């Protein structure tokens, strides 16, 4: 009986963890408690296991190094940065401005408010990455307006909850950061892979609203004329968009030979900037153009001085500054020229169309609606470029992008006059709570993974999953079903830290691309925020939705509250949409695999290897294997040495994920009695399975366990 228990410690340990979680113990403490408990049991049962258990008291001495690996993981710094950014943007009123403006834009059509909620949800997802901030903001702002004008309560609740969860899959999503870390892959690659599926999912949400506007038009009425405070003005907005498209085409055509695929992002940035300059110049007049000119000149002078200070070749630096100054002057001149062309076009159109929506401020060329749409949309789009554009262009790691996003959120909040002491306290407190929550789970998972690998749990899970029928697709379907049901009880952080590291080795052994696998799991985990009765997005919406009838402050009429059952039933259609999206991502991996870029023909490449001698060293980065590999042999966590080549933000040393990576402790200590030199004085070659460089030795605490 004891032998049977010893040889099946892995499933017993996993079942015990599930039992702890079902009893409601905090995840971090459940992981750590199970790890320590079964470590003690495993050491006692080692003689009866027949070689199935590899635990020794000396292994606990490696725990400080493992925990330090978690705390020093720079990739996870992106989580507090993006959390801080999201909370600041929520407090700055950006969501309110976006919902009001886009609601006015789509208000005249049936389902216009629902369209606005989905679009704003996608924009908030791309700027904040925080589900709670998105759902609460849209629930407070949009839900009363949708109820005021007769929207179906189930549909309104479902649209708000589903749109808020887009922050789970559209970069810079927090779950994608954790997923990349656990899989040992680049966060930048994970962002690129998830971008198109996130946009496709947004499009399916919009398509569902469109279908509902045809099937049940009474459920999604248009805004009445008296509610359209910005009036009309779509013509001038369309002209502005066409002009922006022309600027994008010209910039893309000019930049493509120099920047290649990155010209898409740079061209879009130029077009958005030009549209913003036009809208602000039309609203404020020439004084805005003067401000822009002064700002550009100051930036150019500062940049030139910085280059001169950092360069020893003053002649070359001066020439570069002159060329850069000419380029900036040309861009600024092009923006003014575009504004003059736009002014001429609108003046000509004003002779044909009655421009009753002209404003009296500034030049008075564009409508108030066009001005408001551009002025409100550009700041979050600019923030998206600074965060995602710099990551996609390779200018910054996700951690650096998150830091820039946090600074950008501070600037936007200050510009709106809402950067108060209370806002800073709230943002810092929420960020600290979330970061501490993540760190505690990671520490507990490190303890659990040490024991789980010691009882060969990774082999048990891999054998269980790779023996499923259907190959890759059978594996993906079973895993999707498993994660879908586990999401009833666990949120995405817990799923990512417990389940993903167990699934990743099996996925990699089946030849599944781990970025594709991560995006599939990300879309699946998105449902953990939505499906009743435990979806956190539903709880967030319930906390701000009116429970009882109340008097509307605009119409003065009594409006019924929303029951919890209406919120739950409203989420059901969107859960089915997300299941459909999982199937689409599985069936069409090209939606994700574009992150790899074009295939390079190695037959056309010429590689030159310098033949000069070099210094003997201790190996390059990652030669120590990192803290992510198995401590009991060569069963490395996914990512390993490969992961460092997949992007600039891969987890160090093959991923510092919890269960995905105990460290490599190297081979057994050499026999002291053995000769270390050959007879001719030359060093003997290390064994094939030798482990670390003999000159450096293993780091402190990572020596092989004593026999």
List keywords for this structure.
707 residues; mainly alpha; two-stranded antiparallel ribbon; 27 helices; disordered C terminus
Describe, in plain words, how this protein is organized in 3D:
It is a single chain. By secondary structure, the protein is mostly helical. It has a domain at about 235-365. It contains 27 helices and two strands. A two-stranded antiparallel ribbon has the order 1-2. A hairpin with a 6-residue loop joins strand 1 (about 550) and strand 2. Helix 5 runs parallel beside helix 17 (about 400-415) and helix 7 (about 110-125) runs antiparallel to helix 8. The longest helix is centred in the middle third of the chain and has 37 residues, at about 315-350. The chain is globular, with a radius of gyration of 29 Å. The two termini are about 25 Å apart. Residues about 355-360, about 615-630 and about 630-705 have low confidence and may be disordered.
Rg over alpha carbons: 29 Å
In DSSP terms (H or I, runs of 4 or more residues), the helix count works out at 27
Return the structural class.
mainly alpha
Order of helices and strands: HHHHHHHHHHHHHHHHHHHHHHHHEEHHH
Termini separation: 26 Å
Number of strands: 2
Largest sheet: 2 strands, antiparallel
* Strand order of the biggest β-sheet: 1-2
What is the overall silhouette? Answer: globular
